[in-house]
Amino acid sequence: MKQLEFFDIPSPCIGVCESGARGYCRGCFRSRAERQYWFQADDEAKRLIIRACQVRKLRFERAQTSQSSEPSPPQETLFPDLDEEAGSNS
Q1: DSSP string, 8-71
Q2: Is 27:14 a contact under the CB 8 Å cutoff?
Q3: What was the pLDDT predicted at 67?
Q4: How far apart are the C-alpha atoms of 58 and 53, rounded to whole Å?
Q5: pLDDT tens, 51-72?
Q6: How far is the C-alpha of 29 from the C-alpha of 42, rounded, in Å?
Q7: Is the confidence at residue 74, as pLDDT, over 80?
Q8: What pLDDT is attached to residue 90?
Q9: What's the pLDDT tens digit per position in 10-60?
Q10: How far apart are the first and last CA of the chain?
Q11: CA distances from 15 to 25, 29, 64 (A)
């Protein structure tokens, strides 16, 4: 039995239309084909596209979180001689 739809499924576009490194939009996480196909897609296909976008966004956010949780590399100092002197006094 097919579910009745009372409202159109809106496009996930948020107006940030740039392709990322993997070819997905940085705003909505749709592929180019998914963006082009959106207006011809039936509601079931639109739901599948939105679900795929949610998964891609979660993966992206997890990757960003894991990168930021890594310790940052030590910063170069502008005054290495002063830092060495301070280290020898402690």
Answers
A1: PPPP---S---B-TTSSBTTT---HHHHHHTTT--HHHHHHHHHHHHHHHHHHHHHHHHHHHSP
A2: yes
A3: 80
A4: 9
A5: 999 999 999 999 988 887 666 5
A6: 19
A7: no
A8: 46
A9: 999 999 999 988 889 999 999 999 999 999 999 999 999 999 999 999 999
A10: 76
A11: 10, 12, 21
Taking the C-alpha atoms of residue 68 and residue 55, their distance in angstroms, rounded to an integer, is 20
32 and 17 Cβ atoms separated by less than 8 Å: no
Count other C-beta atoms under 10 Å from residue 41's C-beta: 14
Residues in the chain: 90
> Which amino acid, residue 44?
E
Which of these, 30, 33, 29, 32, lies nearest to 57 by C-alpha position? 29
